TrEMBL record:
<keyword id="KW-0238">DNA-binding</keyword>
<dbReference type="InterPro" id="IPR042087">
    <property type="entry name" value="DNA_pol_B_thumb"/>
</dbReference>
<comment type="similarity">
    <text>Belongs to the DNA polymerase type-B family.</text>
</comment>
<dbReference type="GO" id="GO:0003677">
    <property type="term" value="F:DNA binding"/>
</dbReference>
<protein>
    <recommendedName>
        <fullName>DNA-directed DNA polymerase</fullName>
        <ecNumber>2.7.7.7</ecNumber>
    </recommendedName>
</protein>
<dbReference type="Pfam" id="PF00136">
    <property type="entry name" value="DNA_pol_B"/>
</dbReference>
<keyword id="KW-0808">Transferase</keyword>
<keyword id="KW-0548">Nucleotidyltransferase</keyword>
<dbReference type="InterPro" id="IPR006172">
    <property type="entry name" value="DNA-dir_DNA_pol_B"/>
</dbReference>
<dbReference type="InterPro" id="IPR043502">
    <property type="entry name" value="DNA/RNA_pol_sf"/>
</dbReference>
<dbReference type="InterPro" id="IPR050240">
    <property type="entry name" value="DNA_pol_type-B"/>
</dbReference>
<dbReference type="InterPro" id="IPR006134">
    <property type="entry name" value="DNA-dir_DNA_pol_B_multi_dom"/>
</dbReference>
<dbReference type="GO" id="GO:0000166">
    <property type="term" value="F:nucleotide binding"/>
</dbReference>
<dbReference type="InterPro" id="IPR023211">
    <property type="entry name" value="DNA_pol_palm_dom_sf"/>
</dbReference>
<keyword id="KW-0239">DNA-directed DNA polymerase</keyword>
<dbReference type="GO" id="GO:0006261">
    <property type="term" value="P:DNA-templated DNA replication"/>
</dbReference>
<dbReference type="GO" id="GO:0003887">
    <property type="term" value="F:DNA-directed DNA polymerase activity"/>
</dbReference>
Length: 703
């Protein structure tokens, strides 16, 4: 079976692994296809357009086939068009879709990625049949952006330096000698830079198993749920998988073993899977399931939202279960979590786009609060997700028993990769562009999940426990003050699990947990808390506070964790403030290495669009002057050097090895982090500053 697919010169090279390398099978007969159906199933209309489709320059052949256009549809006659080249598929689809009134002709199988499309059409599982050999090629962002090419790279742990052209030649030689299946690079722009240096020398340059180098996509900026992201340009070398670590979520959230597990589930080859989003991988798994059931994959989602009463609209427009945290420090707290709550709701309640509000059970009220009917016929989405839920449970069970470190790494990667697919399956039902999504399914899942959590809350309280916080699929409880003989939590968890048909797991016990208030407004912050795990005085759990935030500098994060340890030892706000004073003293004395003060920020717009002279704007302008442009959606790393400056001198970029910092700026950040620690006790920033103003010598108890 091929592990890598290359489209070259009108043919496909399907690379299969051998004992000592890889060999290509050249497929010259492959033609990608698109399918066309009339919106009303009018096959006579298809007869009329068939000659016009056949006359399109990119179309080589047309024929009729029988497919289902949806999971609740019978098979019908559709027009299939074979396209000369994979790069012409979209042109053909746009042309045909433009005939007649909008939506008259429905197109299917249009926007699959190149390698995935080939595996689907040929029925090929691209899971590697042996362990892949990997060559690591690294260069810093500065080196990759250097005018004239990189002068320093790291190849399998060895640092190589020199003239860019000579360096490119050395890399080529080493790659050929190693003959890896995978090129694991810090950024695929490094490959482009090496090729450019060789081209300047008039040399053919080859990092693949055969000559050739392709740019598959240019860089782009996108917005998702209000967050700006950046997708780097993508490059390809034939015969080798390129893993770009600057453009992969899966490899950072899991590992190679986890990614390979998803290759087998989705049939999306490793290179494409590595740069794909979680939603894209989930869609690939769903597409496979649809194709196996004879269902076509729509180009665009056409399912309209069904009519709802005003009451249903109000009720449906709610998220998951939330129980506002009881702000403060709570002793002996227990955490319980539902295992994969949303996926299990889908599986146990048969929630699927084609089962929710089905016509065959109209009038039946199955979904709590909403009154939607759920069809008795098995839904496709539960069938897709049930193996993932079951397999993850089995992987976690083996992980709990296994001590072999290599096996544990594989299992952890698989568990993490499946987890992210399961996490996305619920939200993707509400995504407007989801191939098989439906908003009513999204609403039904939420309603069932709220009902499950409320049931758990009621049973726990009846058993003598007080809920101090609950969100989505987790609940934290302490023994109720008036409880005389509370039911053991593990027993309650078993009872709840049996009642709701979803496993409620006893997650952890904490000696204490502190829930942080909102900075603005009343009540507790839903996702900000910290506490000490019971039985281990060195293990703490942090969520949402500064030490868990990506942009926090290492010094401030370490100091905050130290303040929490001081609080754990003393339970004294004054002692925490005294410990804070020591960190501030170190900071103001200039004794903190500047690289420990690096701030990491994701930028949402280019430098010229900033109206105010912010730190980010200064960092972006400084990066541009250094020939290191930062695009919207990318991160910029800097140290604040002089916060009072209104120019690029306000910051120093991390790669400039800054030798000074603005102590007042970082002192403010440190005090803010201390506020997160002490705010559960009612201490705000002003009270902390008053304590600091009166501090002379730190008390012994602060250590």
């Amino acid at each position: 079976m091929p592990f890598k697919i290359d489209h070259r010169d009108g043919a496909v090279l399907a690379w299969s692994l051998t004992d000592d390398g890889a060999r290509p099978d050249r497929d010259t007969d492959y033609r990608p296809t698109v399918s066309v159906a009339h919106e009303d199933g009018d096959t006579a209309a298809l007869d009329r357009i068939r000659p016009h489709v056949a006359d399109l320059p990119a179309v080589t052949e047309t024929r009729y086939e029988r497919w289902r256009r949806g999971f609740r549809h019978d098979a019908e006659r559709v027009l299939r068009a074979d396209v000369r080249d994979v790069d012409r598929v979209l042109d053909v689809a746009r042309t045909v879709a433009g005939w007649g009134a909008p939506g008259t002709y429905r197109l299917f199988g249009v926007d699959h990625s190149r390698e995935f499309r080939y595996c689907l059409d040929r029925g090929l599982d691209p899971t590697p049949e042996r362990e892949l050999s990997v060559l690591e090629l690294r260069a810093s962002e500065v080196e990759r952006a250097r005018d004239g090419g990189p002068r320093e790279v790291e190849l399998d742990g060895e640092t190589l330096t020199g003239d860019p052209a000579d360096l490119a030649a050395t890399v080529e030689e080493r790659v050929h000698a190693a003959d890896p299946d995978v090129l694991s690079v810090s950024g695929s722009d490094l490959l482009a830079g090496l090729h450019e240096r060789a081209a300047e020398q008039g040399r053919d340059y080859r990092l693949g198993r055969v000559p050739g180098f392709q740019q598959l996509a240019g860089r782009s900026t996108y917005s998702s749920y209000g967050r700006v992201g950046h997708s780097p340009a993508r490059y390809n070398v034939p015969g080798r998988v390129v893993l770009d670590h600057s453009n992969t979520f899966l490899l950072s959230a899991a590992n190679l073993a986890g990614a390979l597990d998803l290759v087998g589930r989705s049939w999306k080859p490793l290179q494409e899977l590595a740069w794909a989003s979680i939603g894209t991988v989930l869609t690939a798994i769903q597409i496979r399931a649809a194709r196996e059931r004879g269902v076509l994959v729509p180009w665009r989602a056409w399912r309209p939202e069904l009519f709802k009463t005003a009451r249903q609209l109000h009720t449906a427009d709610r998220g998951g279960f939330t129980f506002a945290p009881d702000v403060g420090v709570h002793e002996s707290v227990h955490e319980l979590d539902f295992a994969s709550l949303y996926p299990n709701v889908i599986v146990t309640r048969n929630v699927s786009p084609e089962t929710v509000r089905c016509a065959c059970h109209r009038g039946r009220e199955d979904v709590p609060e909403l009154g939607y009917a759920i069809c008795d016929a098995d839904g496709y989405l539960p069938e897709v997700l049930e193996p993932l839920v079951t397999d993850r449970a089995e992987v976690k069970a083996e992980l709990a028993e296994t001590t072999d470190p290599d096996r544990r790494e594989v299992l952890q990667g698989q568990a993490d990769a499946i987890k992210w697919i399961l996490v996305s399956c619920f939200g993707y039902q509400g995504f407007k562009n989801a191939k098989f999504g439906r908003i009513e399914a999204h609403e039904a899942i939420n309603a069932y999940a709220r009902d499950v959590m409320l049931t758990a809350k009621e049973r726990l309280e009846a058993g003598g426990w007080r809920v101090v916080h609950g969100i989505v699929d987790s609940v934290w409880v302490t023994e109720a003050e008036d409880a005389t003989d509370p039911t053991p939590l593990r027993e309650l968890a078993r009872d709840v699990s049996e009642e709701v048909r979803i496993e409620l797991e006893y997650e952890a016990e904490y000696d204490w947990v502190a829930f942080v208030p909102r900075r603005e407004g009343a009540g507790g912050a839903l996702t900000k808390y910290f506490g000490r795990v019971s039985g281990d005085e060195r293990t703490f759990k942090y969520r949402g506070i500064e030490c868990r935030q990506d942009g926090t500098s290492p010094f401030v994060a370490d100091a905050q964790r130290d303040l929490i340890r001081a609080f754990d030892r003393t339970r004294s706000p004054e002692a925490v403030c005294d410990r804070l004073a020591r960190h501030l003293e170190t900071l103001r004395a200039g004794d903190v290495p500047p690289d420990e003060l690096t701030i990491v920020q994701r930028v949402s717009k280019p430098a010229e669009e900033y109206d105010r002279a912010t730190r980010n704007a200064a960092a972006l302008e400084r990066a541009e002057r250094a020939g290191l442009p930062v695009h919207p959606g990318q991160r910029v790393r800097y140290v604040v050097a002089d916060d009072d400056a209104d120019s690029v001198d306000r910051v120093r970029l991390a790669h400039e090895s800054p030798d000074r910092y603005d102590a007042d700026c970082y002192a403010a950040r440190l005090v803010r982090a201390a506020e997160s620690v002490l705010s559960p006790l009612g201490w705000d920033e002003s009270r902390i500053r008053r304590r600091l103003a009166g501090t002379r010598d730190a008390r012994l108890g602060s250590f």
